[in-house]
Amino acid sequence: MLHQAIIIVGGGPVGLSLALMLNRQGKRVTVIDAGLDKSSDGRVLALSHASCQILAELGAWNPSTKSVTAINTVQISHAGLGISQIKAEQLDLATLGYTINYAEVCQQLLTQVLSCLDINLITAQVNKVAHNSSYALVEYSRDGENHLLTCDLLVMAEGGKLLADVDKKIAHDYRQQALISHVKTKQAHRNVAYERFAGRGPLVLLPYQDHYVAVWSLPTELAEEFISHPDHLIDALNEDFTARLGGATLLQAPISFPLRLIQTKQRVDKRMVLVGNSAQIVHPVSAQGLNLGLRDACVLSELLAVKTEIVPEDLHQYDELRNRDANAVIGFTHFLATKLEKRSFLHDHLRGCGLIGLSNLPILQNMIARSLIFGV
Ligand SMILES: Cc1cc2nc3c(=O)[nH]c(=O)nc-3n(C[C@H](O)[C@H](O)[C@H](O)COP(=O)(O)OP(=O)(O)OC[C@H]3O[C@@H](n4cnc5c(N)ncnc54)[C@H](O)[C@@H]3O)c2cc1C
Protein backbone atom coordinates (compact mmCIF):
# COMPACT_ATOMS: atom_id res chain seq x y z
CA MET A 1 0.00 0.00 0.00
CA LEU A 2 1.43 3.36 -1.03
CA HIS A 3 1.67 6.25 1.41
CA GLN A 4 1.20 9.85 0.19
CA ALA A 5 1.55 13.20 1.92
CA ILE A 6 -1.75 14.73 0.77
CA ILE A 7 -4.65 13.18 -1.13
CA ILE A 8 -7.47 15.33 -2.52
CA VAL A 9 -10.62 13.38 -3.37
CA GLY A 10 -12.44 15.32 -6.11
CA GLY A 11 -10.92 17.24 -8.99
CA GLY A 12 -13.69 19.82 -9.43
CA PRO A 13 -12.73 23.51 -9.42
CA VAL A 14 -11.99 23.60 -5.67
CA GLY A 15 -9.96 20.37 -5.53
CA LEU A 16 -7.86 21.32 -8.57
CA SER A 17 -7.28 24.88 -7.28
CA LEU A 18 -6.11 23.54 -3.94
CA ALA A 19 -3.80 21.04 -5.65
CA LEU A 20 -2.16 23.89 -7.61
CA MET A 21 -1.83 26.06 -4.49
CA LEU A 22 -0.14 23.26 -2.54
CA ASN A 23 2.06 22.37 -5.49
CA ARG A 24 3.39 25.96 -5.47
CA GLN A 25 4.50 25.36 -1.87
CA GLY A 26 6.54 22.39 -3.06
CA LYS A 27 4.12 19.84 -1.58
CA ARG A 28 3.41 16.55 -3.32
CA VAL A 29 -0.30 16.05 -3.90
CA THR A 30 -2.43 13.23 -5.31
CA VAL A 31 -5.84 14.12 -6.78
CA ILE A 32 -8.39 11.39 -7.46
CA ASP A 33 -11.44 12.23 -9.56
CA ALA A 34 -14.13 10.05 -11.09
CA GLY A 35 -14.79 12.15 -14.20
CA LEU A 36 -12.62 15.06 -15.27
CA ASP A 37 -14.49 15.75 -18.52
CA LYS A 38 -17.10 18.34 -17.56
CA SER A 39 -18.21 19.26 -21.06
CA SER A 40 -21.76 17.98 -20.46
CA ASP A 41 -22.27 20.23 -17.40
CA GLY A 42 -24.35 23.20 -18.58
CA ARG A 43 -23.81 25.45 -15.55
CA VAL A 44 -22.70 29.03 -16.16
CA LEU A 45 -21.12 30.57 -13.07
CA ALA A 46 -20.72 34.17 -11.97
CA LEU A 47 -17.31 34.48 -10.36
CA SER A 48 -16.42 37.41 -8.16
CA HIS A 49 -13.50 39.69 -8.92
CA ALA A 50 -11.57 38.05 -6.05
CA SER A 51 -12.18 34.51 -7.38
CA CYS A 52 -10.94 35.53 -10.83
CA GLN A 53 -7.78 36.87 -9.17
CA ILE A 54 -7.25 33.54 -7.39
CA LEU A 55 -7.63 31.66 -10.68
CA ALA A 56 -5.33 34.14 -12.43
CA GLU A 57 -2.62 33.54 -9.82
CA LEU A 58 -2.94 29.82 -10.59
CA GLY A 59 -2.55 30.51 -14.33
CA ALA A 60 -6.11 29.35 -14.93
CA TRP A 61 -7.77 32.58 -15.98
CA ASN A 62 -7.79 34.37 -19.29
CA PRO A 63 -10.26 37.29 -19.35
CA SER A 64 -9.51 38.13 -22.97
CA THR A 65 -11.06 34.94 -24.38
CA LYS A 66 -14.63 34.85 -25.69
CA SER A 67 -15.58 32.30 -23.03
CA VAL A 68 -15.65 34.90 -20.22
CA THR A 69 -17.94 37.93 -19.94
CA ALA A 70 -17.51 40.84 -17.55
CA ILE A 71 -20.22 41.86 -15.06
CA ASN A 72 -19.97 45.59 -14.40
CA THR A 73 -23.33 46.23 -12.74
CA VAL A 74 -25.71 44.13 -10.66
CA GLN A 75 -29.29 45.31 -10.39
CA ILE A 76 -31.55 43.79 -7.71
CA SER A 77 -35.28 44.41 -7.96
CA HIS A 78 -38.69 42.94 -7.17
CA ALA A 79 -42.10 43.26 -8.69
CA GLY A 80 -43.69 46.37 -7.23
CA LEU A 81 -41.21 48.50 -5.36
CA GLY A 82 -37.51 48.67 -4.88
CA ILE A 83 -34.46 48.63 -7.08
CA SER A 84 -30.91 48.50 -5.84
CA GLN A 85 -27.92 48.78 -8.11
CA ILE A 86 -24.25 48.01 -7.45
CA LYS A 87 -21.66 49.20 -9.96
CA ALA A 88 -18.01 48.19 -10.20
CA GLU A 89 -16.86 51.82 -10.05
CA GLN A 90 -18.57 52.28 -6.65
CA LEU A 91 -16.08 49.71 -5.36
CA ASP A 92 -13.12 51.08 -7.34
CA LEU A 93 -13.03 47.91 -9.41
CA ALA A 94 -12.82 47.51 -13.17
CA THR A 95 -15.48 44.76 -13.00
CA LEU A 96 -17.56 43.12 -10.27
CA GLY A 97 -16.73 39.73 -11.71
CA TYR A 98 -17.15 37.56 -14.77
CA THR A 99 -19.34 34.78 -16.07
CA ILE A 100 -17.82 31.59 -17.41
CA ASN A 101 -19.13 28.08 -17.82
CA TYR A 102 -18.27 25.46 -15.22
CA ALA A 103 -16.61 23.16 -17.78
CA GLU A 104 -14.28 25.95 -18.91
CA VAL A 105 -13.13 26.76 -15.33
CA CYS A 106 -12.41 23.07 -14.75
CA GLN A 107 -10.59 22.72 -18.08
CA GLN A 108 -8.33 25.75 -17.43
CA LEU A 109 -7.40 24.36 -14.01
CA LEU A 110 -6.89 20.85 -15.39
CA THR A 111 -4.49 22.16 -18.05
CA GLN A 112 -2.37 23.72 -15.28
CA VAL A 113 -2.54 20.57 -13.13
CA LEU A 114 -1.42 18.39 -16.05
CA SER A 115 1.63 20.60 -16.51
CA CYS A 116 2.74 20.02 -12.87
CA LEU A 117 4.83 16.87 -12.64
CA ASP A 118 4.49 16.79 -8.85
CA ILE A 119 0.70 16.46 -8.96
CA ASN A 120 -0.31 12.84 -9.29
CA LEU A 121 -3.71 12.78 -11.01
CA ILE A 122 -5.68 9.54 -10.83
CA THR A 123 -8.94 9.11 -12.75
CA ALA A 124 -10.91 6.73 -10.57
CA GLN A 125 -13.99 6.42 -8.40
CA VAL A 126 -13.25 6.66 -4.69
CA ASN A 127 -15.47 4.16 -2.88
CA LYS A 128 -14.46 4.60 0.73
CA VAL A 129 -12.38 6.81 2.99
CA ALA A 130 -11.37 6.27 6.63
CA HIS A 131 -9.11 8.14 8.99
CA ASN A 132 -7.69 8.18 12.49
CA SER A 133 -5.29 10.52 14.26
CA SER A 134 -2.23 8.88 12.65
CA TYR A 135 -3.21 8.54 8.96
CA ALA A 136 -6.10 8.46 6.48
CA LEU A 137 -7.00 5.72 4.02
CA VAL A 138 -8.58 5.96 0.57
CA GLU A 139 -10.02 3.05 -1.38
CA TYR A 140 -10.65 3.55 -5.09
CA SER A 141 -11.52 1.39 -8.04
CA ARG A 142 -10.08 1.61 -11.55
CA ASP A 143 -10.56 -0.78 -14.46
CA GLY A 144 -12.43 -3.16 -12.17
CA GLU A 145 -9.60 -3.35 -9.62
CA ASN A 146 -9.60 -1.97 -6.07
CA HIS A 147 -6.64 0.05 -4.79
CA LEU A 148 -5.71 1.40 -1.37
CA LEU A 149 -3.65 4.47 -0.51
CA THR A 150 -2.80 5.99 2.85
CA CYS A 151 -1.90 9.62 3.49
CA ASP A 152 -1.04 12.18 6.19
CA LEU A 153 -3.84 14.51 5.12
CA LEU A 154 -7.07 13.68 3.31
CA VAL A 155 -8.91 16.60 1.70
CA MET A 156 -12.47 15.91 0.61
CA ALA A 157 -13.41 18.06 -2.40
CA GLU A 158 -15.92 15.63 -3.91
CA GLY A 159 -18.87 18.01 -3.67
CA GLY A 160 -20.40 16.19 -0.70
CA LYS A 161 -21.36 13.08 -2.69
CA LEU A 162 -19.23 10.44 -1.00
CA LEU A 163 -19.67 11.90 2.47
CA ALA A 164 -23.42 12.37 2.09
CA ASP A 165 -24.11 11.01 5.60
CA VAL A 166 -21.55 13.14 7.49
CA ASP A 167 -23.08 15.14 10.43
CA LYS A 168 -24.82 18.29 9.23
CA LYS A 169 -25.35 21.61 10.98
CA ILE A 170 -27.96 22.51 8.34
CA ALA A 171 -29.69 20.30 5.75
CA HIS A 172 -32.52 22.07 3.97
CA ASP A 173 -34.29 20.93 0.81
CA TYR A 174 -35.63 24.00 -1.03
CA ARG A 175 -37.93 21.76 -3.09
CA GLN A 176 -36.82 23.86 -6.02
CA GLN A 177 -34.86 23.29 -9.20
CA ALA A 178 -32.49 25.82 -10.71
CA LEU A 179 -33.67 26.04 -14.31
CA ILE A 180 -30.88 27.24 -16.57
CA SER A 181 -31.74 28.66 -19.97
CA HIS A 182 -29.73 30.61 -22.53
CA VAL A 183 -31.86 33.45 -23.85
CA LYS A 184 -31.33 36.28 -26.29
CA THR A 185 -33.06 39.57 -25.49
CA LYS A 186 -33.72 42.38 -27.99
CA GLN A 187 -31.74 44.75 -25.79
CA ALA A 188 -28.02 43.91 -25.52
CA HIS A 189 -26.81 43.01 -22.02
CA ARG A 190 -24.26 45.86 -21.61
CA ASN A 191 -22.56 43.71 -18.91
CA VAL A 192 -25.46 44.15 -16.47
CA ALA A 193 -26.59 41.20 -14.31
CA TYR A 194 -30.07 41.19 -12.79
CA GLU A 195 -31.56 39.56 -9.71
CA ARG A 196 -35.33 39.66 -9.79
CA PHE A 197 -37.80 38.66 -7.10
CA ALA A 198 -41.20 38.51 -8.73
CA GLY A 199 -43.00 35.76 -6.83
CA ARG A 200 -42.46 32.57 -8.87
CA GLY A 201 -38.89 32.16 -7.54
CA PRO A 202 -35.63 34.12 -7.54
CA LEU A 203 -34.49 34.85 -11.10
CA VAL A 204 -30.87 35.68 -11.92
CA LEU A 205 -29.95 36.92 -15.39
CA LEU A 206 -26.24 36.72 -16.13
CA PRO A 207 -24.66 38.39 -19.16
CA TYR A 208 -22.85 35.63 -21.04
CA GLN A 209 -21.10 36.08 -24.39
CA ASP A 210 -23.72 37.83 -26.60
CA HIS A 211 -26.78 36.80 -24.60
CA TYR A 212 -28.11 36.09 -21.10
CA VAL A 213 -28.12 32.94 -19.03
CA ALA A 214 -31.22 32.84 -16.87
CA VAL A 215 -30.88 30.89 -13.60
CA TRP A 216 -34.43 30.62 -12.31
CA SER A 217 -35.01 28.86 -8.98
CA LEU A 218 -38.51 27.42 -9.25
CA PRO A 219 -40.73 24.95 -7.41
CA THR A 220 -39.94 21.51 -8.85
CA GLU A 221 -43.30 21.03 -10.66
CA LEU A 222 -43.07 24.43 -12.34
CA ALA A 223 -39.48 23.76 -13.45
CA GLU A 224 -40.60 20.42 -14.91
CA GLU A 225 -43.49 22.11 -16.71
CA PHE A 226 -41.12 24.69 -18.23
CA ILE A 227 -38.72 21.95 -19.38
CA SER A 228 -41.58 20.15 -21.16
CA HIS A 229 -43.06 23.41 -22.51
CA PRO A 230 -40.26 25.91 -23.23
CA ASP A 231 -42.83 28.31 -24.76
CA HIS A 232 -44.43 28.60 -21.29
CA LEU A 233 -40.98 29.37 -19.88
CA ILE A 234 -40.42 32.22 -22.33
CA ASP A 235 -43.90 33.66 -21.64
CA ALA A 236 -43.23 33.58 -17.90
CA LEU A 237 -39.75 35.08 -18.27
CA ASN A 238 -41.11 37.91 -20.37
CA GLU A 239 -43.97 38.47 -17.97
CA ASP A 240 -41.72 38.54 -14.88
CA PHE A 241 -38.79 40.46 -16.32
CA THR A 242 -37.40 40.13 -19.84
CA ALA A 243 -40.21 42.10 -21.53
CA ARG A 244 -38.40 45.19 -20.23
CA LEU A 245 -35.31 44.07 -22.16
CA GLY A 246 -37.37 43.90 -25.38
CA GLY A 247 -38.49 40.27 -24.94
CA ALA A 248 -36.52 37.02 -24.88
CA THR A 249 -36.08 34.07 -27.23
CA LEU A 250 -34.73 30.71 -26.15
CA LEU A 251 -31.35 29.63 -27.61
CA GLN A 252 -31.18 26.04 -26.34
CA ALA A 253 -33.22 23.56 -24.30
CA PRO A 254 -33.27 24.44 -20.58
CA ILE A 255 -31.61 22.16 -18.01
CA SER A 256 -32.17 21.90 -14.25
CA PHE A 257 -30.34 21.20 -10.97
CA PRO A 258 -32.02 20.31 -7.64
CA LEU A 259 -31.42 22.89 -4.87
CA ARG A 260 -30.37 22.25 -1.28
CA LEU A 261 -28.64 24.07 1.52
CA ILE A 262 -26.07 21.94 3.34
CA GLN A 263 -23.56 22.93 5.97
CA THR A 264 -21.52 20.24 7.69
CA LYS A 265 -21.05 20.39 11.45
CA GLN A 266 -17.26 20.27 11.25
CA ARG A 267 -14.87 20.87 8.40
CA VAL A 268 -12.06 19.05 10.18
CA ASP A 269 -12.02 15.59 11.71
CA LYS A 270 -8.67 14.12 12.72
CA ARG A 271 -6.77 13.91 9.41
CA MET A 272 -9.69 14.72 7.13
CA VAL A 273 -10.60 18.25 5.96
CA LEU A 274 -13.62 19.31 3.89
CA VAL A 275 -13.47 22.07 1.29
CA GLY A 276 -15.89 23.60 -1.23
CA ASN A 277 -19.21 21.85 -1.74
CA SER A 278 -18.07 19.02 0.54
CA ALA A 279 -18.26 21.52 3.40
CA GLN A 280 -21.26 23.59 2.26
CA ILE A 281 -23.73 23.71 -0.60
CA VAL A 282 -25.56 27.02 -1.05
CA HIS A 283 -28.50 28.17 -3.16
CA PRO A 284 -27.27 29.76 -6.43
CA VAL A 285 -29.37 32.93 -5.93
CA SER A 286 -26.34 34.94 -4.83
CA ALA A 287 -23.87 33.05 -7.07
CA GLN A 288 -21.54 32.31 -4.16
CA GLY A 289 -20.86 28.54 -4.02
CA LEU A 290 -17.60 28.40 -5.90
CA ASN A 291 -16.47 31.78 -4.60
CA LEU A 292 -16.81 30.38 -1.07
CA GLY A 293 -15.07 27.13 -2.06
CA LEU A 294 -12.09 28.95 -3.57
CA ARG A 295 -11.72 30.92 -0.32
CA ASP A 296 -11.76 27.56 1.56
CA ALA A 297 -8.88 26.41 -0.63
CA CYS A 298 -6.91 29.65 -0.09
CA VAL A 299 -7.25 29.55 3.70
CA LEU A 300 -6.33 25.85 3.92
CA SER A 301 -3.31 26.28 1.68
CA GLU A 302 -2.14 29.31 3.69
CA LEU A 303 -2.39 27.26 6.90
CA LEU A 304 -0.45 24.39 5.36
CA ALA A 305 2.19 26.71 3.90
CA VAL A 306 3.79 27.14 7.31
CA LYS A 307 3.72 23.40 8.17
CA THR A 308 6.34 20.90 7.23
CA GLU A 309 4.56 18.16 9.16
CA ILE A 310 0.77 17.77 9.32
CA VAL A 311 -0.47 17.64 12.90
CA PRO A 312 -4.28 17.18 13.28
CA GLU A 313 -4.52 19.76 16.11
CA ASP A 314 -3.15 22.47 13.80
CA LEU A 315 -5.98 21.92 11.34
CA HIS A 316 -8.75 22.98 13.74
CA GLN A 317 -7.84 26.57 13.03
CA TYR A 318 -9.10 26.08 9.47
CA ASP A 319 -12.61 25.37 10.77
CA GLU A 320 -12.60 28.50 12.92
CA LEU A 321 -11.16 30.62 10.13
CA ARG A 322 -13.83 29.56 7.62
CA ASN A 323 -16.85 29.77 9.92
CA ARG A 324 -17.52 33.50 9.75
CA ASP A 325 -17.34 33.77 5.96
CA ALA A 326 -19.43 30.62 5.37
CA ASN A 327 -22.06 31.59 7.95
CA ALA A 328 -22.42 35.10 6.50
CA VAL A 329 -22.82 33.82 2.92
CA ILE A 330 -25.21 31.05 3.99
CA GLY A 331 -27.36 33.47 6.04
CA PHE A 332 -27.53 36.08 3.29
CA THR A 333 -28.16 33.54 0.52
CA HIS A 334 -30.87 31.70 2.46
CA PHE A 335 -32.56 35.04 3.19
CA LEU A 336 -32.57 35.94 -0.52
CA ALA A 337 -33.76 32.46 -1.50
CA THR A 338 -36.64 32.24 0.94
CA LYS A 339 -37.73 35.50 2.55
CA LEU A 340 -37.68 37.84 -0.44
CA GLU A 341 -39.99 35.58 -2.39
CA LYS A 342 -42.77 35.29 0.20
CA ARG A 343 -45.98 36.89 -0.99
CA SER A 344 -48.17 39.00 1.25
CA PHE A 345 -49.13 42.65 1.16
CA LEU A 346 -47.05 43.44 4.26
CA HIS A 347 -44.14 41.40 3.02
CA ASP A 348 -44.27 43.05 -0.41
CA HIS A 349 -44.31 46.43 1.26
CA LEU A 350 -41.45 45.69 3.66
CA ARG A 351 -39.47 44.04 0.93
CA GLY A 352 -39.88 47.11 -1.25
CA CYS A 353 -38.89 49.40 1.60
CA GLY A 354 -35.90 47.19 2.30
CA LEU A 355 -34.63 47.39 -1.23
CA ILE A 356 -35.36 51.10 -1.49
CA GLY A 357 -33.60 51.49 1.86
CA LEU A 358 -30.64 49.59 0.51
CA SER A 359 -30.43 51.78 -2.58
CA ASN A 360 -30.41 54.86 -0.33
CA LEU A 361 -27.63 53.48 1.84
CA PRO A 362 -24.52 53.27 -0.29
CA ILE A 363 -22.37 52.33 2.71
CA LEU A 364 -24.55 49.29 3.50
CA GLN A 365 -24.76 48.43 -0.18
CA ASN A 366 -20.97 48.60 -0.49
CA MET A 367 -20.57 46.47 2.63
CA ILE A 368 -22.83 43.74 1.23
CA ALA A 369 -21.18 43.89 -2.18
CA ARG A 370 -17.68 43.80 -0.66
CA SER A 371 -18.48 40.80 1.53
CA LEU A 372 -19.91 38.92 -1.46
CA ILE A 373 -16.94 39.80 -3.63
CA PHE A 374 -14.10 39.36 -1.16
CA GLY A 375 -15.64 37.25 1.63
CA VAL A 376 -16.10 38.28 5.25
C1 LIG B 1 -27.37 25.85 -10.95
C2 LIG B 1 -26.13 26.25 -10.23
C3 LIG B 1 -25.60 27.52 -10.43
C4 LIG B 1 -24.46 27.92 -9.74
N1 LIG B 1 -23.98 29.17 -9.93
C5 LIG B 1 -22.88 29.58 -9.28
C6 LIG B 1 -22.34 30.88 -9.50
O1 LIG B 1 -22.87 31.65 -10.29
N2 LIG B 1 -21.22 31.23 -8.80
C7 LIG B 1 -20.61 30.40 -7.92
O2 LIG B 1 -19.59 30.80 -7.31
N3 LIG B 1 -21.11 29.16 -7.69
C8 LIG B 1 -22.21 28.73 -8.35
N4 LIG B 1 -22.69 27.46 -8.15
C9 LIG B 1 -22.01 26.59 -7.19
C10 LIG B 1 -20.78 25.91 -7.79
O3 LIG B 1 -21.11 25.19 -8.96
C11 LIG B 1 -20.18 24.95 -6.75
O4 LIG B 1 -20.04 25.62 -5.54
C12 LIG B 1 -18.83 24.43 -7.21
O5 LIG B 1 -18.96 23.68 -8.38
C13 LIG B 1 -18.20 23.58 -6.10
O6 LIG B 1 -16.97 23.08 -6.55
P1 LIG B 1 -16.33 21.80 -5.85
O7 LIG B 1 -15.03 21.58 -6.55
O8 LIG B 1 -16.34 21.96 -4.38
O9 LIG B 1 -17.35 20.60 -6.14
P2 LIG B 1 -17.87 20.01 -7.51
O10 LIG B 1 -17.92 21.05 -8.56
O11 LIG B 1 -19.13 19.28 -7.18
O12 LIG B 1 -16.76 18.93 -7.93
C14 LIG B 1 -16.66 17.70 -7.24
C15 LIG B 1 -15.71 16.78 -7.99
O13 LIG B 1 -15.59 15.57 -7.25
C16 LIG B 1 -15.68 14.45 -8.12
N5 LIG B 1 -16.22 13.32 -7.37
C17 LIG B 1 -17.42 13.23 -6.77
N6 LIG B 1 -17.55 12.04 -6.14
C18 LIG B 1 -16.38 11.37 -6.36
C19 LIG B 1 -15.90 10.09 -5.97
N7 LIG B 1 -16.62 9.24 -5.23
N8 LIG B 1 -14.65 9.71 -6.38
C20 LIG B 1 -13.88 10.55 -7.12
N9 LIG B 1 -14.30 11.78 -7.51
C21 LIG B 1 -15.53 12.18 -7.13
C22 LIG B 1 -16.58 14.92 -9.28
O14 LIG B 1 -16.29 14.19 -10.46
C23 LIG B 1 -16.20 16.40 -9.38
O15 LIG B 1 -15.16 16.59 -10.32
C24 LIG B 1 -23.84 27.04 -8.82
C25 LIG B 1 -24.36 25.76 -8.62
C26 LIG B 1 -25.50 25.37 -9.32
C27 LIG B 1 -26.06 23.98 -9.10
What does this structure look like?
The chain has helices at 13-24, 49-57, 102-114, 220-228, 230-240, 289-305, 312-338, 345-359, 362-374; strands at 2-9, 29-33, 44-48, 69-71, 73-78, 83-87, 97-101, 119-123, 125-131, 136-142, 145-156, 168-185, 192-197, 203-208, 211-219, 248-250, 255-264, 268-269, 272-274, 280-281. The protein is of the alpha+beta class and 376 residues long. The strands form three sheets. Strands 5, 6, 12, 13, 14, 15, 16, 17 and 20 form a nine-stranded mixed beta sheet that branches. Strand 14 and strand 15 (211-219) form a beta hairpin. Helix 1 runs parallel beside helix 6, helix 4 (220-228) crosses helix 5 (230-240) and helix 6 packs antiparallel against helix 7. The longest helix is centred in the C-terminal third of the chain and has 27 residues, at 312-338. It is globular and about 60 Å long. Flavin-adenine dinucleotide (FAD) binds at residues 9-15, 32-35, 43, 45-47, 102, 125-126, 157-159, 161-162, 178, 180, 215, 257, 276-277, 284, 287-291, 293.
| Largest sheet, strands/sense/barrel | 9 strands, mixed
Q: Please tell me the overall pLDDT.
A: 89
Ions and ligands: flavin-adenine dinucleotide
Shape: globular
Please identify, by name, the CATH architecture of the domain at 2-45 and 100-169 and 261-338: 3-Layer(bba) Sandwich
User: How far is the N terminus from the C terminus?
Assistant: 42 Å
Q: What's the name of the CATH homologous superfamily of the domain at 2-45 and 100-169 and 261-338?
A: FAD/NAD(P)-binding domain
Strand tally, please? 20
Q: H/E element string?
A: EHEEHEEEEHEEEEEEEEHHEEEEEHHHH
**CATH topology grouping of the domain at 2-45 and 100-169 and 261-338:** FAD/NAD(P)-binding domain
As a percent range, the share of strand residues is: 25-35%
Ranges where pLDDT stays below 50 over 5 or more residues in a row are none
Class computed from helices, strands and strand pairing: alpha+beta
CATH class of the domain at 2-45 and 100-169 and 261-338: Alpha Beta
